[in-house]
């Protein structure tokens, strides 16, 4: 590996993605940073997804794992949990073609990367104070036909553990991990019960003391369609959905799943993370413990709603 051109392993998990996959693969091929290998883990697609990947692999460096992570337990999971399991099992594979100096980038199957996506993220990480780091950026939201809908919001407050406890701000499609961060995620293995792989990676690395960098650079088009596992959280409808999830117990369920998985790595966590896990491990989460943890969402109204939900024993 040269200093100027670090190797990047791109991990994409697919399921019946044939409709938009060619455009995403073409955008990966068009990256200005050329030193990459694509690993695709397919979760039993019944369309032309695997054939599209194989054809792409005739020209570019691609490794395809077909139905590699399927079993009875996985098939019974909710779609978001199934996708999370696929990503985490793939990242934990001992045969992943990673060198000690490889960076890791995550990819969805239906987006469109801008040509400088990898180069920009790698440049940010190269200049980071801490080489144990995680990068995330912004996206432009498009509909299934490519029409522009909106843009993601830059962060109001910083990223880090207190935010990761109750919110994910690292969308998987923008995430890039340094070699040290990649090693820690792989060593942690496959978490049980989590719902979102990108939120888990953000929480795990934050709790281990990694530097988390989220800048305002727009690096891709994030496609919104009926098959999204988790769509973009914009607009009044999305805000109302989040509020319902906070007060109907869904949010508390996700947080507890994350904390239960995180608790298995006590020996690797920072003192602050161990204290937060201990304070928030009760079910439901106590409002006083949530307040003392100083956990926050980017929207202060949503932070207040979390505290109210905890008071109502909904977390």
TrEMBL record:
Q: Which InterPro entries match?
A: Glyco_trans_2-like, Glycosyltransf_2, Nucleotide-diphossugar_trans
Glycosyltransferase 2-like domain location, by residue? Answer: 10-152
A GO molecular function assigned to this protein is: glycosyltransferase activity
SUPFAM superfamilies registered for this protein in UniProt = Nucleotide-diphospho-sugar transferases
UniProt entry keywords in alphabetical sequence: Glycosyltransferase, Transferase
Superkingdom, according to UniProt?
Bacteria
Which protein family is named in the record?
Belongs to the glycosyltransferase 2 family.
Q: Which PANTHER family is this protein grouped with?
A: GLYCOSYLTRANSFERASE (PTHR43685), GLYCOSYLTRANSFERASE EPSE-RELATED (PTHR43685:SF5)
Q: What is this protein called?
A: Glycosyl transferase
Gene source species = Thalassorhabdomicrobium marinisediminis
